[in-house]
Design a protein that fits this description.
alpha/beta, aminotransferase, pyridoxal phosphate, Class-I_PLP-dep_aminotransf, seven-stranded mixed sheet, Aspartate Aminotransferase, domain 1, about 280 residues, 9 helices, four-stranded antiparallel sheet
């Protein structure tokens, strides 16, 4: 969609902090990036987006409405409607990245912004990569008014989709207890997140704050202002063989130096627990 909408140095609104793959795409397409402050609990700021679209000639907006990477944020329904209203008033398309949508911990699956889209402005993107088959790289887009253009671009880019992978997934979804798999996966992820949060609270300095996402993979950890996780990265790798995702990885201008993202989807093994203890000593 970005390739369809933009010329050189066109403006795109996106979350801050944001998934580093998103930042790399914006840089590769040589777009002018308009950062929109994003809350760890409520997602992209409606007021900040409104100010941005009134101040810049924004051609598109890109966000994750649920279990955002790296914050884990999920928008309340009222915010989803407000975001859509702001964009629709200026006829700005929204790229809604919803790859973690099946990984909710609540009883009911939250709606995407696409569910409220009356003008076909929302391109809703999702994938089986996060919930079923990471190696297959099978996803989809509900593209609204841009469907024909997306089809053409996809054909020009790849010529042919991975049909065997798609057929295998379709067979499992239809006949392989997909819903049972998802329920088991959600319980597992929720339990592992709770264990990881508890371990961080136990070992890290008292002033540390940790997000409490209602789904997905990620915890966003905020440390004391004097800590620079980016500067510690190489030392942790060289001296302790520990790799972290520093906060600066998720911004274009060295923001979030005292932050880090932790993937809570892994089982809390003794090795990971020891790595957390080592991190805590470095942060003390």
């Amino acid at each position: 969609m970005l390739r369809l909408r933009f010329n050189y140095r066109s403006s795109s609104a996106y979350e801050s902090p944001a998934f580093y793959g998103e930042l790399q795409t914006i840089e590769r397409l040589q777009l002018k990036a308009i950062e929109i402050i994003t809350d760890p609990q409520f997602g992209m700021s409606v007021d900040a987006l409104k100010h941005a679209v009134n101040s810049h000639d924004i051609k598109a907006c890109w966000l994750m409405s649920k279990y955002q990477n790296p914050l884990g944020a999920s928008m309340p329904e009222v915010n989803k409607l407000a975001i859509l209203d702001v964009l629709a008033a200026k006829h700005i398309p929204l790229l809604e990245d919803d790859v973690y949508s099946e990984l909710y911990f609540s009883e009911y699956k939250p709606k995407p912004i696409k569910a409220y889209d009356q003008q076909g402005l929302v391109l809703h993107c999702s994938s089986f990569s996060k919930c079923l088959a990471p190696g297959f790289r099978v996803g989809w887009v509900v593209a609204g008014r841009y469907a024909k253009q997306i089809e053409k671009l996809q054909f020009m880019t790849t010529l042919s989709a991975a049909v065997p992978n798609q057929l295998a997934i379709a067979e499992f979804v239809l006949h392989g207890n997909y819903d049972t798999h998802l329920r088991r996966l959600r319980r597992q992820l929720e339990s592992r997140q709770q264990q990881m949060r508890h371990a961080i609270e136990q070992y890290f300095p008292l002033e540390t704050t940790i997000t409490r996402p209602s789904g997905g993979y990620f915890l966003w950890v905020v440390l004391s202002d004097h800590i620079n996780t980016g500067e510690l990265l190489q030392t942790l790798l060289d001296d302790h063989n520990i790799s972290i995702a520093p906060g600066t990885l998720f911004a274009s201008d060295q923001q979030y130096k005292n932050c880090m993202r932790i993937n809570s989807s892994y089982l809390l093994t003794d090795k990971i627990r020891q790595a957390l203890i080592t991190l805590a000593r470095c942060f003390a």
